[in-house]
């Protein structure tokens, strides 16, 4: 079992601590949180070992799970990597693209691995259909959340939209050609609602909307490709695959047949895969363990996290035009 320590015991940090404590692949050594009051409270309530400094925690483990505010990601990761420790970084990977690129260089220099916490890649609904997404030509996503002051120190693109950017970049195997976007600040100093249109060199277009001032929560993506229409509901953890094939000369009584203007008949049918429910956060942490032990690439690499961050900043730059 790999020894792991958690940096940051806030809302998400406590979830990571609980899951790592349950994991059969990790030995949770303890955590460090700069707030002595919060650290004492977490240690007393849950029984996790509290370390008095980052240095002490890093020295005691094989893997550092960084669940601190994004502004401190680079400093924490650099310190851990230079001590020869593997690092798991919550999304977004860092504050700047330069920091992300420097982390990649550091992991290569010190021979350690890193993974970024883009948790939707482990959502059971996305896992169920990802192999059915071939060459999507139009993608539409909506990620809407009710207002929560936590996370409003950054634009909604870095807070929410970046989840969808990572997913889209993982299925569209083509460079970004053009980005246009608009964002509006309503309650925060940074944009609370944003829409982006991303055009890829292969002709695919993605239209992405993210809001943290919605009256309801929604996390949905729709993928359109020549042979299929695929929907993923990340919130409800379900999916739907609607496909087309040549209609039989003599269709069945219950076959759904459409005829286009040219007289070509197509049969519409459902090809819905089974969704195997999981704990996405636990899965992303445990697959990182497997990547370390088996010396394979993590599911969400540091390069993936950097690409998503780079695209996020392209979108944010469009707000200023």
From TrEMBL:
Any GO molecular function: nucleotide binding
Gene3D superfamilies: Dihydrodipicolinate Reductase, domain 2 (3.30.360.10), NAD(P)-binding Rossmann-like Domain (3.40.50.720)
Record-annotated Gfo/Idh/MocA-like oxidoreductase N-terminal domain positions: 2-118
Location of the GFO/IDH/MocA-like oxidoreductase domain: 153-216
Superkingdom: Bacteria
Name of the protein described by the UniProt record: Putative dehydrogenase
The species this protein was found in: Myroides indicus
């Amino acid at each position: 079992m790999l020894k792991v320590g958690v940096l940051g015991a806030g809302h998400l940090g406590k979830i990571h601590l609980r899951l790592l404590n349950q994991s059969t692949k990790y030995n949770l050594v303890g955590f460090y949180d700069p707030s002595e009051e919060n650290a004492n409270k977490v240690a007393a309530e849950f029984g996790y070992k509290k370390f008095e400094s980052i240095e002490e925690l890093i020295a005691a483990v094989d893997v550092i799970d960084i669940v601190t505010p994004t502004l401190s990601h680079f400093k924490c990761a650099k310190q851990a990597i230079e001590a020869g420790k593997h690092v798991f970084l919550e999304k977004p990977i860092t504050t700047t693209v330069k920091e992300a690129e420097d982390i990649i260089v550091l992991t290569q220099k010190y021979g350690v691995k890193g993974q970024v916490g883009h948790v939707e890649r482990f959502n059971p609904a996305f896992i169920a259909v990802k192999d059915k997404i071939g060459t999507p030509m139009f993608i539409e996503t909506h990620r809407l959340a009710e207002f929560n002051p936590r996370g409003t120190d950054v634009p909604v693109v870095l807070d929410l939209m970046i989840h969808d950017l990572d997913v889209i970049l993982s299925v569209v195997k083509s460079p970004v050609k053009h980005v246009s976007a608009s964002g509006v600040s309503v309650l925060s100093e940074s944009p609370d609602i944003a829409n982006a249109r991303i055009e890829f060199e292969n002709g695919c277009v993605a239209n992405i909307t993210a809001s943290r001032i919605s009256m309801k929560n929604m996390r949905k993506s729709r993928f359109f490709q020549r042979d299929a229409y695929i929907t993923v509901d990340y919130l409800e953890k379900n999916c739907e695959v609607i496909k087309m094939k040549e209609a039989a000369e003599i269709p069945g009584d219950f076959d759904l047949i459409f005829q286009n203007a040219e007289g070509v008949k197509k049969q519409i049918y459902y090809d819905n895969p089974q969704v195997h429910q999981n704990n996405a956060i636990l899965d992303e942490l445990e697959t990182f363990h497997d990547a370390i032990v088996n010396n394979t690439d993590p599911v969400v690499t540091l390069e993936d996290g950097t690409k998503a961050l780079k695209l996020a900043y392209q979108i944010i730059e469009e707000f200023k035009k």
